[in-house]
Amino acid sequence: MNEKLTAYALNELPPDERAALEAQMQNDPALRQQAEEMKSFCSLLNEQITRSEHDTLNPEQRTQLLENFQSSQKIIRPFWRRPAFLSGFGLAAAACVALIFALHEFNKPNQDALDAIAMDSPNSGALPHGQVIADNAGGFKNEKVEIQSRVAQNEPITAPSKFRTRVSPPPLTSVFSATGNDDLSGASGLSQSSTIASPLIVSNSSTGKDGDLSFNGITKSGSGTVTLRGVNTYSDGTSVSGGMLAMNLDQSSLPAPAPSAPAPSSGPAIALAMSSASKSVLKADSAAEKKNEQVQTKSKVMAESSDKLAMDTKPADSLAAKEPMLEASGKIEETSKLQKTITIAGNNKPQDHELRREIAAAPESQPLGGAGGGKTNGSLALNTNSEEEKALYYSAARDQTRSKMLNIVNGAWEDQAPILGDILVTDGLYGRKSATRGTQTYRHIIENPFLYVAQQPLSTFSLDVDTASYANVRRFLNSNQRPPANAVRLEELINYFPYKYDAPADDKPFAVHVDIAEAPWQPLHRLARIAVKAREIKGERQPANFVFLLDVSGSMQPEERLPLIKKSLRLLVDQLRADDRVAIVTYAGNSGVALASTPGSEKEKITQAIEHLNAGGSTNGASGIRLAYEQAALNFGKERINRVILATDGDFNVGLSNVAELEKLIAEKAKSGVFLSVLGVGTDNLHDHTMQTLADRGNGNYNYLDSVGEARKVLVEQMSGTLITIAKDVKIQVEFNPAQVAAYRLVGYEKRLLAKEDFNNDKKDAGEIGAGHTVTALYEIVPANLKFPDGKPVVDDLKYALKEDAATKPSLDVTNADTKLSKIQATPSSETMTVKLRYKQPDADVSQLLEFPFTDNEKKLTDSDKEFQFAVSVAGFGMLLRDSAHAGELTWDTVRKLALSGKGPDEQGWRGEFIQLIEKARGLSENR
Amino acid sequence: MPSEHHMSDRHPDHVYLIAALDRYERPLIRYALGIVCEINQARDIVQDVFIKLHESLPTLDRERLAPWLFTVCRNRSLDHQRKHKRLVPMELEILDKESSTLPGPSEELEQKELSGQLKHWIASLPDKQREAVRLKFEAGLSYKEISETLKTSIGNVGTLIHHGVAALREQWLAMNA
Q: In 10 A of CB A883, how many CB atoms?
């Protein structure tokens, strides 16, 4: 056997070698024999491997593809072949060179801020004053044009010769770096098409940071391009009287989360975008005058642009470019005032690793607010009106600290829906396409750091009773894999277990207990447990109005998905009473009502409907959810538990599946009284985050089902907690006494942090609590009166952090309010902290406040109650799995000991299972 | 600068796309399946590959369609895989067992087992051999196309496939013995 024989058997031998081999075989029967054997094995292999019923596309996918093929008007053409490029680019370039000209004339740029925007506006002549630097080193494929436009001048400047420009303060200087490319639709709508902006650089002298905002033009089926559209009308005597730059970021199709190491100064921009109307357009008063030589200049400019850009422009092309140019010149003579508008519109789909947003603003000159993009219609406005813009700037700065926190947690970034699947990225001018990764499987979690009480005495978060993370971690460990750190959400691990806390004695919905003992991972620190117990529902629950919304798409086929859901629902159906109502809505490529609302007495009928569900087709989440809410509305009753129960693997893969819109819809419906619970299934949790977000928006909870056992826990044993909400928007704010506590760290709840102002803001959405739920939060506390046995600092990693005296120094991390607070001498009090809790009744809009002060009584962990010990054990388990920086001297042994001593009677066996998981996790971690 | 060079005359393109779909749909899905191990994801990937093909048609070197398709398909599958980081060999087995739960003639069951077994063996070949063998047998590419996809010489492809096939055959003979 040799290679030739194999090639021969596969018919891959060149003719001459083949002939030679066949001749050889004539003389050598053994060789022939071998060749025959090889041939038969190869055909067997071929036959075996290619036989499969599964290896075709779904009919839906095929139809979509064929439709896509049909729409072949949308063809990407090398950019230099596109008419839009030819005319537009030439024109833009020409106009830009005109700007240089102008600049040469003024030559007094008062340059404070820079922004760079890519542009190529076919319709227009670009900016009135500017400088074009064309860098054509790489030839066509690396066309890079930088248009530096300087619109400047603090005071009126009289240019010596042809041009005179007056721009009202403050000065603005922009650098436009153009990487032009038209998008797909540009090919058809040539005359209007325009380009991609990348990057937009805004420099900020006040924070001392240069940020840049870069957009990657993304082109998929013609949408998603950051487009810079310039409309310039030149008038006789000339130029800019108003300029605006509005950026309309439509995140609708495929927005990116971009939470990667949260860009620190992106905050203000987002805050700004959110606070301002969906489109803020600020006008700049600038006037410039030009003389009549305009037209002549233009043609000069024209010629220069061709040269300067080193374009391969042949005469024909120049002509083509010249035509609209002349048109523009014509307008110059007609109009007497010029309105210049640059609008950036289109879908922006920034990638987290590609998009770096830092927004900045120069204190005096800064004309810029940036909208990084969370909002569906966020806007970026360039403003050269000094008062307004200063106000904007300062408000942005004020919001900075807050936004910093928020964008780590559930602030602006959270508003962006995650990407579902991959995106095709057309990279600006380079015409290069690359498949980029969508969102990470899990949201990145940055552990809460220690915070100084002197600076931030308040810690605010939303109560969370999701437990999905624990079930997910368990699945990983049971398959002998170590879960990724970001899949381990400490608060969800801790809250997976019901704790025996005392129920509220009075008719209040909550009881709050605080307990403090030493932290097992850092014995000098104290660990405060805040235990919240919700009221149990006594007697019969209210009648229910459930709509099961089931994903029956092809991806739900595997055993642990739809079949598991079916089993789980049967468990729930067994719990139904005669006055309950159940409807089933399915969604795949099309959504439909599988079972119209049926009373709970007809269990047989409901069970049969569940039985008949089959997986197949692709998923269109949005229409199914709409239909489900319609069904829920049909049987809506104020006295009922109205709830849509969505069961899915979260893989919304048809249409744009605009998650942002979906969230909006769900949030609206939640206000109408129909809440949403999400049951997640499936082994690949690509959409863990989507499901969590949907449940949050829907005032519901998200549970991950990895087994029938888990379904039993969620839907039967804790049914009232899962399905009956007794309070919504539950927030906790803890105030620490600086006399007692130097620093604190909230364990977990990274995604649930709120700004301190949000605590009293009833419009701010927060967590929901079901009947009988227990919620536990842990704070690691550095006591203020800590005695150092050997004089060493206790918390090494805070060596360079600002100490108490920091409050007197200006610091970006400290808002004005904080500064004031820290200056106030703490009233002498032995109280360690006060826990404040706000909640709303499920149908109320106004929140109520509960307060619980607490004093540390120097208890030891071993003396504290078992529930506390167990919660600490779970927290430690999570910290070790996460490789937490704060884990200190914590070992698996300690975790195990605490779990054993805190196990208690453990009727359901959940805690016993946890102890087994500790062993598994220990094995996986220590054998690495 | 042939600015009049329009692609709007789309009919031949459409035919070309349909032909490409007919020829490579199954091979690509099998190929993607070998990487991502989940049929629906493989389908999604292949659908994307064809959409990308459509978008890239004007710049495509049509002589080298197969290498292009398989390169794109592999990259996307690997991206996908990287995101999911799942174990490969186990899932193949599970998948095949699942697809064989339907009762049928015993012969067909045996066939399924054999094909499942072969796939399993292929999956355990060294990386390069596995790629070459899969491109050859699952996708039905020629040596030349394989060499372009894998960016190696035709001679090397011959060697890889020979070693791969020989190893498979040995395992097959051992099983039959």
A: 11
| Residue B62, SS3 per DSSP | helix
Classify residue A337 as exposed, middle or buried by CB count within 10 Å of its CB (0-12, 13-18, 19+).
Answer: middle
Q: Which two tokens stand for residue A696?
A: 């949050």
Q: Are B44 and B92 in contact (CB under 8 A)?
A: no
* ipTM > 0.90 for the complex: no
Name the residue with tokens 């006399």.
A739
What part of B 86-145 touches A (C-beta under 8 Å)? 86, 98-99, 111, 114-115, 118-119, 122, 136-138, 140, 142-143
Among left, alpha and beta (phi > 0; psi -120 to 50; other), residue A440 is beta
How many Å lie between the alpha carbon of A409 and the closest alpha carbon of chain B?
23
For A260, phi and psi rounded to 5 degrees? -55, 130
Phi-psi region of A888 (alpha: psi -120 to 50; beta: other; left: phi over 0): left
Instruction: Note if the bond before A122 is cis, omega within 30 degrees.
Output: no
Residue with tokens 């995101």: B83
Q: Nearest Cβ partner of B26 from A56, A221, A433?
A: A56
- The phi-psi region of residue A565 (left if phi > 0; otherwise alpha if psi is between -120 and 50; otherwise beta) is alpha
The answer to whether A103 and A109 have CB atoms below 8 angstroms apart is yes
Residue A840: phi and psi, rounded to 5, are -120, 145
Alpha helix segments (H runs only) across A552-702: 562-574, 603-611, 621-634, 659-671, 688-697
CA distances for A552 relative to A549, A562, A592, B27, angstroms: 9, 7, 11, 27
Residues B47, A57: C-beta atoms closer than 8 Å? yes
pLDDT of residue A851: 87
Beta-carbon separation of B162 and A1 below 8 A: yes
Would you state the structure tokens that stand for residue A880, as one six-digit string? 């070790």
Determine the Cα angle at A675 with ends A671 and A679, to 5°.
Answer: 150
Sheet holding A581-587, edge to edge: A591-599, A581-587, A544-551, A641-648, A675-680, A702-704
pLDDT of residue A392: 52
Total count of residues recorded for chain A: 928
Q: Residue A663: which pLDDT band, with cuts at 50, 70 and 90? A: confident
**For chains A and B, what is the number of CB pairs under 8 angstroms?**
177
Q: Examine the pLDDT at A831 and tell me if it is beyond 90.
A: no
Cis peptide before A199 (omega within 30 of 0): yes
Residue from A5, A69, A190, A254 whose CB has the most chain B CBs within 10 Å, to mutate:
A69
